[in-house]
Design goal:
It contains 13 helices and 2 strands. The protein folds into 2 domains: 119 residues, no CATH class; 142 residues. By secondary structure, it is an all-alpha fold.
Length: 285
């Protein structure tokens, strides 16, 4: 099974007769004209760590990079965020050597996340401990074979078979984001990045709605405006994420930009828009 095509097929199925979300093709053309005038933003890479350690920490971070709030995005225990999560990951790897026991780093991170009271803590611990047995071997394989005949699809299959937590999401947001991060850091999988679905989360849909690329019906808009939780796996939530994937695929096609570049274009501008985003308690994004 081609995991990438499967995500596109699922997204298209949700958007054949949508009930809550509409994609506006004309607005896609307008945003593409603006993107054509831009230069893709480069994410800074200030890591002084080895390639192996950097990739391993990205695998760990990707396994728990989700949901930093309870109910309202303004209610964050100890100011939890992706930035803080990355700091805790770095702290847990402070004394890591390639011959060091990786399990120790995982357990240190479990303690740090517990102390900080991160949301969905039980799920995070489960996802982290899945990495113990094969995490280092996965990264060694990835580094040694990424530039050879093995495609990104092969590594996706290996990832979800070894680490089920990465396979829980039908839109595979965290899995795709992991490979996008490695592309941003090292330029790996450049050709495949043109085909990879955008990691559909909270912020990119917010930006697409801001530019009227997607629009919500009255019922869904009212829930978002009033910070009413949208259930995980509901038709509302799936249409938001599916429309994001389909719209961003069209933008990639029209501009020639890769998925990480389009994702970065919207994500880096997220603070320009103060309207609320949809709220779902989930480990998928």
């Amino acid at each position: 099974m081609n995991l990438v095509e499967n995500v596109y097929d699922i997204s298209e199925s949700f958007m054949k007769k949508p009930k809550y979300v509409t994609i506006n093709p004309q607005e896609i053309s307008f945003i593409c004209k603006d993107i054509d005038k831009q230069t893709p933003a480069k994410f800074p890479n200030n890591s002084e760590d080895s390639e192996f350690k950097t990739c391993l920490m990205e695998l760990v971070a990707g396994s728990i990079n989700y949901c930093y709030w309870y109910g309202s995005s303004k209610i964050r225990p100890n100011k939890s965020s992706s930035t803080k999560m990355y700091k805790l990951v770095k702290e847990s790897f402070r004394y890591y050597k390639e011959e060091h026991d990786f399990s120790d780093c995982i357990e240190i991170l479990v303690k740090l996340l517990s102390y900080e009271g991160f949301p969905l803590l039980r799920e995070r611990i489960t996802h982290l401990r899945e990495l113990k047995m094969n995490g280092e071997m996965f990264i060694k394989t990835l580094i040694s074979l990424h530039s050879n005949s093995r495609s990104l699809i092969s590594f996706l299959i290996l990832m979800v078979s070894r680490f089920p937590g990465y396979a829980e999401d039908i839109f595979m947001k965290r899995a795709f984001l992991f490979f996008a991060q490695l592309n941003r850091i090292y330029g790996w999988f450049e050709e495949e990045m043109k085909e990879l679905p955008v990691p559909a989360d909270y912020q990119v849909p917010k930006m697409l709605q801001h530019f009227n690329i997607i629009s919500y019906n009255k019922e869904l808009q009212n829930m978002i405006d009033n910070e009413i939780l949208i259930p995980k796996g509901s038709l509302m939530e799936c249409e938001i994420r599916a429309s994001t994937i389909i719209a961003c695929r069209e933008i990639c096609k029209k501009t020639g930009w890769t998925m990480p570049q389009i994702d970065g274009y919207f994500w880096l501008r997220r603070k320009e828009v103060t309207t609320p985003f949809h709220l779902t308690i989930t480990s998928d994004y």
